[in-house]
Amino acid sequence: MSTTHEVISALLDDQPFDAEELTESLSDPAGRALLIDLATLRRIVQPVDAVPTMRAATPARQRPWRIVAAAAALVLALGGGYLAGERRAVTTSPEAPPPTRVVEAVPFVPTGGMR
Amino acid sequence: MADSEALFTANQDRLFRYFCRAVGGAETARDLTQELFLRVSRTSIPVGADGDLRSWLFRIARNLALDHHRTRRRHAEPAALVDEPARSPSQDVNLAVNKALASLQPLDRDVFLMREVAGLGYDEIAGACELTPDAVRSRIHRTRLQLREQLAAPIATSRTTATSRSAQTYVRHE
């Protein structure tokens, strides 16, 4: 294979090439055949499988704001819960609820029996 | 320091495609792509331009692919490229391509795949494979010539199919 055909690889790879050298190479039927074959080769070597969807496992040390945000949310939840409970405890009446039924106590009087 | 997730998102397509042909199977390619990003997320990403980072990623990818081949040989697993009954023509071509790639020298194969399948530039390939850009250029051309010879039949078939398809399109548009 003559070196002039290497210019065809440069053309395919979008690399700088000598135009005269390319003209000379493409004026040769073997050069034209090579261009067509290499373009076909490029097509058939492409993988047929679909690209998977993945996510990188990002280490926690690279995202310190996430830890800070989680800690702040926890503090807010605990503080808010405490305050809400306290407010509710103050406003609730300490009195007992009214009775629904009153039972009167009657002294026991024996009506008969042993003497 | 670059963000590993952004680096992953920008390059996962290229890496998966490279792995698909470097190891000859999509399932293993998925595993290796995932493994690569687990490794990347555990290490400090070097400071550099996009091309340098891509070279760095592909250097790791290349090592993973080489490790995979070594492990497979050591455990004497059956070859991934086995003959299966009742294959379609496209499966035949796929198998022939995998066989031809497997017969290449590992460095030639990687340089070729990084260019043709992953779309890396000569400088990026040079960085990933520790070669000079001139060495990359001549290696790619040499490998292309070798594959052209080995894949003469699939190339001829694909060329004929493409030509007849173009002719049909031309007739339809006339």
List the helices and strands and how they pair.
The complex is a heterodimer of chains A (115) and B (174).
Chain A: H1 6-12, H2 19-27, H3 29-44, H4 64-91
Chain B: H1 4-23, H2 26-42, H3 50-74, H4 89-102, H5 106-116, H6 122-129, H7 133-150, H8 152-173
Helix pairs in contact in B: 1-2, 1-3, 1-5, 2-3, 3-6, 5-6, 5-7, 6-7
The number of distinct β-strands of chain A equals 0
Mean pLDDT over the residues of chain B: 86
Strand content of chain B: under 5%
Catalogue the unreliable spans of chain B: none
Describe the structure.
Chain A is an all-alpha fold and 115 residues long. Chain A has four helices and no strands. The longest helix of chain A has 28 residues, at 64-91. Among the domains of chain A are: 3-44, no CATH class; 63-88. Chain B has 174 residues and is mainly alpha-helical. Chain B has one domain (4-173): Up-down Bundle (Butyryl-CoA Dehydrogenase, subunit A, domain 3), CATH 1.20.140. Chain B has helices spanning 4-23, 26-42, 50-74, 89-102, 106-116, 122-129, 133-150, 152-173. Chain B is globular. The model of chain B has no long low-confidence stretch (mean pLDDT 86). The chains are: A mainly alpha (115), B mainly alpha (174). The A-B interface holds A 1, 5-6, 9-10, 13, 15, 34, 36-38, 40-49, 51-52, 54-59, 62 and B 1, 3-5, 7-9, 12-13, 16-17, 20-21, 26, 29-30, 33-34, 37-38, 40-42, 90, 93-94, 97, 101, 113, 115-117, 122, 137-138, 140-141, 144-145, 147-148, 151, 154-155, 158-159, 162.
